Amino acid sequence: MNKLLNIALLLLTLSWVSCSSSGNDDPNPTPNGGDGSQNLQTVKYTSTKEDFFNPERGMYTMVESNLTTPLSAARLNTAKNAKESLVQIVYYLKDRRNQALSTADLNKITTDLATVRQAGLKAILRFAYSSAATEPDAPLNIIEQHLNNLKPVLVQNKDVIACVQAGFIGAWGEWYYSTNGLNNTAARNAVLQKWLEVLPKDRCVQVRTPAYKQTFTGIAAPLNATTAYKGTPQARIAQHNDAFMADETNMGTYVDVAKDKAFVAEEALYTPLGGETARPNSSTPPSRGSVALQELKTLHWSFLHDGYDPVVLKQWERDGVMDEIRTQLGYRLVLMRGQYSTQHAPGSELMVKLSIYNIGFAAMYNPRKVQLILRSTSGDVYVATLPDDPRTWKPRQATTLTAKVALPGNLPAGDYQLLLFLPDAEPSLAARADYAVRLANKNMWETTTGYNNLGVKIKVDATAKLPQSTSNIQFIKQ
């Protein structure tokens, strides 16, 4: 499979095929960039198979909490050292089945999320009242009260929330085995509606089966490029699967297996899909790695639990697929080629054309910025924010990123480095390297800044006679 991928990357490098919204560009551009006014230099880049840390994707660690013991920073640092950027926190509210969450409770959750932030990870949140089918959950009015209690915490800490899972109802919050009669459509819809009210609009809530989403929205068709990212219930409800590869239906996840899988595969191009493996019982043989790998790729998984089911995961290790799973869950972006203008003066235009290929299983699912960075030899930094949305860089597709950026009129002459920066959209995290996206290329990543160094020198000549740029995209000095 890796050989086929390498061949595909080679062919794409040679032809520079574009599959993005910029697809009308000439796939074999002339050296002068099309208008004869600028010569372009071409740089080809080398990919890497290295497993490295990247935000909001990959294997994740899971922590259970009953709000008595604070989240362990050491546990999160261990996960980060294992190249894991996500932690699932399952809060069991067993002592709060008949009462509101107190200020002390909310402060403990806030402290946990501060620990997540300090570690440089993001959280997948779930709340439940029972960790066994024989334990009680809570009545609907308490669930709704708890969600209202949680709203300020969710809003305050959305920067480190990757997504949430609907939870609350039944054992493990998986919407079954309810002792309060909540495993029905009305109760599930009420919980989901409340989640959509209290959760910031640019975050998704995952539900356990495709049918739960379809029933709530009344829409049988999956998301597409037109309906995604709109902040609607359809755009914000995603899937988690905690019985991946357990059996044909994934222990009831699917009803019409082929139809439901097709729905999930399309949905997960725009929303996060994740979960864990399982076996129906201890005598069931684990699924085979090759089959699981293809399923993860086809369904576009973004993240997978690193600890369950251990028998299944060990089998996949023996089958030799875990390295590929670890590196390709979610997005994985390879820069294949770049073209850059060669003549620049203060106030003139910098032209950039990048060919990026996503070799991952999925795409990004939360908002993220795309920025070009100019850095002088003295360390001055200029930033240009591009209008592109990296969530549209879909798996197994190439994207051509084209930009014409105005240089400042007072830009000092000299040599500048050009870098690509994909920072978190939240201001609290935007300057942190551990929340920026790293490209899967050799000799490019800067660990302290989170920049991807494009390896090209931009020379600015104050005496050059060049037209002044009219672009509304401009480099701004920081």
TrEMBL record:
Q: Which domain of life is it from?
A: Bacteria
What InterPro entries does the record tag this protein with?
DUF4832, DUF4874
- The DUF4832 domain covers 236-441
Q: What keywords is this UniProt entry annotated with?
A: Signal
Keyword Signal attached: yes
Region listing for Disordered, in residue ranges: 21-40
Q: Where is the DUF4874 domain?
A: 54-212
The answer, when asked if Signal is one of the entry's keywords, is: yes
Tell me the protein's name: DUF4832 domain-containing protein
What are the boundaries of the signal sequence?
1-23
Q: Which PROSITE patterns match?
A: PROKAR_LIPOPROTEIN (PS51257)
